[in-house]
Design brief:
InterPro entries: EpsG-like
Strand order of the largest sheet: 1-2
Number of helices: 18
Protein name: Polysaccharide biosynthesis protein
Number of domains: 2
Largest sheet: 2 strands, antiparallel
Keywords: Membrane, Transmembrane, Transmembrane helix
Pfam family, one: EpsG
Shape: globular
Transmembrane segments: 6-23, 35-51, 97-116, 128-155, 167-194, 201-226, 246-264, 285-305, 317-333
Order of helices and strands: HEEHHHHHHHHHHHHHHHHH
Mean pLDDT: 81
Structural class: mainly alpha
Number of strands: 2
Length: 378
């Protein structure tokens, strides 16, 4: 646990480093914002982890070392051929697994950087949440899904701009990296096709998510039919009996609290708006998109209480929590620093009790073993 607290402290300190490089004519050459250095640091930590960090890393290592062109299976939906092609191309250059892990981490953290820099109301808070809510842990274990998520984060940029062709292409690429990503395609397409994401649309998503919960039994059968390989994960947890079930209830109540704040905030702003100012600006539209995304996340956190089968789906939507919480603080609490501090402290407790202990086998953390051995012999 101590190593992750050190990582968290370093991320906070690096997020305070901000400067702009200019030339003699005072023209801006480059800018280091509060998100750049922390993402670079996390990329190194995740990319150069020891190979025994993460329960799935051993399988990914063997898969990488055994990759040949015959295993790419071009255009085969069931064989995630784009991921295989990615592995194969790296394998032609090197057989060093650390290089492979670093390149995968580089893709994720470049995408995460632009995602937070473009859309987060407070990049530092988002980065702290990224660690405290356990997303950093999964990035060091679920390599293939992390790459798929990186593509989806890029796709979200085109969703905001309503560029359907780019959204479809990126969602398909993400799907051929990890097939669960296909569920994001109809969600993103809906955002693109609806002219304006209004409060009514956001409310509809909230109601729709409740409907999915009520239709759980039928939907679970449909999901298993589409993705039979995940039938194994269809098992149940009892509250306060299994540690993972407590972790999942914490996720659910967090998503429920966030959704309550968002819906209440929408109601208050609508009530305060006068007739002359009843227009939908870009900030309102973006906020409504976040309401929709969190509604789906809330739905997934509920469904996972009934079975592990939805765990992968839930993690697809978890990244938008990094935007939602800072948005709420800025929009409805006037960017209150005390509330930001409270959120960070509470989520540290969450990480301490739940996130780290169920962190996909990433505890204890170890850095690149070869470097450790070299330093030990100096």
């Amino acid at each position: 646990m101590e190593s992750y607290l050190v990582i968290l402290i370093v991320v906070i300190l690096l997020s305070m480093v901000r400067f702009t490089m200019v030339n003699n004519k005072r023209e801006k050459l480059a800018e280091v914002n509060s998100c750049l250095l922390p993402c670079a640091f996390l990329c190194v930590i995740a990319g150069f982890r020891a190979l025994d960090v993460g329960k799935d890393n051993y399988s990914y290592t063997r898969y990488f070392l055994g990759m040949t062109i015959n295993k790419v299976y071009f255009f085969d939906f069931k064989k995630y051929w784009i991921y295989n092609l990615w592995v194969y191309l790296i394998r032609q250059v090197t057989d060093n697994v650390y290089v492979f892990n670093f390149l995968c981490a580089l893709v994720l953290y470049i995408s995460l950087y632009f995602f937070l820099h473009r859309y987060s109301s407070d990049e530092r808070v988002s980065l702290i949440l990224y660690i405290n809510l356990g997303l950093f842990f999964t990035s060091m274990n679920q390599t293939r899904q992390a790459l798929s998520l990186a593509v989806l984060l890029w796709a979200f940029h085109f969703v905001v701009q309503k560029k359907i062709v780019q959204v479809v292409i990126l969602c398909l690429i993400a799907t051929f990296v990890h097939n669960v990503a296909i569920v994001m395609l109809p969600v993103f397409l809906l955002f693109c096709l609806i002219p304006k994401i209004t409060r009514s649309v956001a409310t509809f998503f909230s109601i729709f998510s409740v409907g999915i919960v009520l239709l759980y039994n039928r939907l679970i059968s449909l999901f298993v039919f589409i993705f039979p390989q995940y039938k194994y994960y269809l098992k149940y947890s009892k509250l306060f009996v299994e540690r993972k079930s407590i972790f999942r209830y914490a996720d659910f109540f967090l998503a429920l609290t966030i959704q309550a704040f968002l819906l209440y905030g929408m109601h208050i702003t609508r009530k305060k708006a006068s007739v002359s100012t009843k227009r939908i600006d870009s900030d309102d539209i973006f906020g409504n998109i976040l309401v929709c995304m969190n509604a789906i996340y809330l739905c997934m956190t509920y469904l996972i209480l009934n079975g592990d089968i939805f765990n992968r789906l839930k993690s697809l939507f978890a990244y938008w929590v990094l935007l939602v919480i800072p948005y709420i603080i800025k929009k409805y609490f006037d960017d209150n620093k005390a509330i930001k501090a409270l959120v960070c402290v509470v989520t540290i407790a969450y990480m301490w009790r739940l996130g780290v202990h169920d962190g996909d086998g990433v505890v204890p953390y170890k850095f690149y073993k070869d470097i450790q051995e070299i330093l030990g012999n100096m």
